[in-house]
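Lab meeting, item 3. Inverse folding demo.
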């Protein structure tokens, strides 16, 4: 494994095979947690496998910055982007550093605070009930990913943006073209810059029209906030605004759907934990945190060192890239007792599924609210649940989760009110 580990770290197939990922990164945590990695077809980088090291990097956003490298991109694609005059497809909070990051984060930060999310909590609960009712209509059998998990958080984020329901399918297709382009089942195998560029352009055209409408006719939605935002006393940049729509419309639901599907799979695979949750629904908050740790939908982000730095005795040079591997950090044996056990009452649970520091996920409170609402309905209305076939996982090294989860279940005859 040692000879091939660098290529396995970047291979999308690794991320579509959870047990394989766990084996590779357990070995890295033991033997080489800060590893100089030189995979074929990629610029080299440091692989960061330990929880404490990820936190150390994330806390020091002046010494480890987002720009210019934020995720795994093959050298061939980097060169194509440069030739196309488009080194970056988008410019979002994920790629920004200070002071731009703080300024642009401030545009929508208030929307995602708990006090404001409470205003839409009732609507979120209604949508959760709607999708669990859909399970009932399916007659005891469905694909939880493609019938529920993909659509429920998508509808919530599109409602917040003010996007009509009839456009959900289009936006889901574009999300998968951008984030799961390496998985042939979801993108037709179009793992190339051109496919992602076309998807980004479609996103920009779609939300460009919405932004133009909201500038003329502002509404009480997030699309209007972004369309009319100012940064430093001037209108927000067009490229940055369109990128803002894109990241909210993709990351705002894709990661949550992965956590939901993976969370349900974990409950099915650990029936004693599912029984505990049904018997003690007050454990839902800790169960949601355990689902987030267990699934870790965002697999990595990069940082670039601005100065020489020592980490676990390794000499990081200014300009070096570091790949923070969040699922590995969330299985760290030094942080989590029995990390390969799924426990709905795990406390404490210092997972890093949302990242850490100033770049921590903007929508973490919304994701938690969505997950709790859905699993509240499932626990209350589903009497038993089992796999109805083999699940399948997305082969993508940036954001991934279940792509199929066939289940069979029995609903309770009288839903709990």
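The presenter then showed the designed sequence:
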């Amino acid at each position: 494994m040692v000879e091939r580990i660098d290529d396995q770290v970047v291979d999308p197939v690794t991320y579509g095979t959870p047990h394989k990922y766990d084996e590779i990164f357990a070995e890295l945590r033991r033997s080489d947690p800060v590893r100089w990695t030189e995979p074929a077809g990629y610029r080299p980088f440091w692989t960061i496998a330990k929880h404490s090291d990820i936190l150390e990097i994330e806390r020091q956003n002046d010494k480890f910055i987002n720009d210019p490298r934020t995720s795994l991109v093959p050298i061939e694609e980097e060169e194509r982007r440069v030739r196309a005059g488009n080194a970056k497809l988008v410019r979002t909070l994920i790629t920004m550093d200070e002071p731009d990051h703080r300024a642009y984060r401030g545009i929508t930060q208030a929307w995602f605070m708990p006090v404001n999310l409470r205003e839409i909590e009732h609507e979120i609960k209604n949508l959760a009930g709607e999708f669990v009712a859909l399970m009932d209509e399916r007659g005891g059998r469905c694909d939880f990913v493609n019938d529920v998990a993909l659509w429920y958080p998508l509808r919530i984020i599109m409602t917040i943006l003010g996007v009509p329901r009839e456009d959900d399918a289009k936006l889901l297709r574009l999300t998968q073209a951008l984030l799961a382009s390496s998985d042939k089942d979801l993108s037709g195998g179009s793992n190339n810059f051109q496919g992602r560029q076309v998807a980004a352009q479609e996103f920009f055209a779609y939300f460009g029209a919405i932004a133009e409408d909201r500038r003329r006719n502002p509404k009480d939605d997030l699309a209007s906030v972004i369309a009319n935002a100012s940064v430093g006393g001037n209108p927000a940049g067009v490229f940055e605004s369109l990128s803002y729509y894109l990241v909210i419309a993709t990351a705002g639901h894709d990661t949550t759907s992965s956590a939901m599907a993976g969370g349900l799979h974990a409950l099915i695979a650990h029936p004693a934990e599912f029984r505990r949750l049904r018997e003690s629904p007050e454990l839902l908050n800790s169960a949601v945190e355990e689902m987030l740790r267990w699934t870790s939908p965002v697999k990595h982000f990069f940082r670039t060192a601005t100065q020489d730095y020592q980490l676990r005795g390794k000499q990081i040079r200014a300009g070096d890239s570091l790949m923070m591997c969040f699922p590995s950090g969330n299985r760290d044996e030094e942080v989590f007792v029995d990390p390969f056990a799924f426990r709905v009452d795990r406390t404490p649970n210092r997972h890093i599924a949302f990242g850490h520091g100033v770049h921590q996920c903007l929508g973490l409170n919304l994701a938690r609210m969505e997950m709790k609402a859905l699993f509240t309905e499932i626990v209350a209305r589903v009497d038993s649940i089992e796999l109805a076939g083999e699940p399948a996982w997305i082969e993508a090294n940036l954001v991934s989760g279940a792509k199929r989860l066939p289940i069979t279940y029995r609903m309770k005859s009288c839903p709990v009110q």
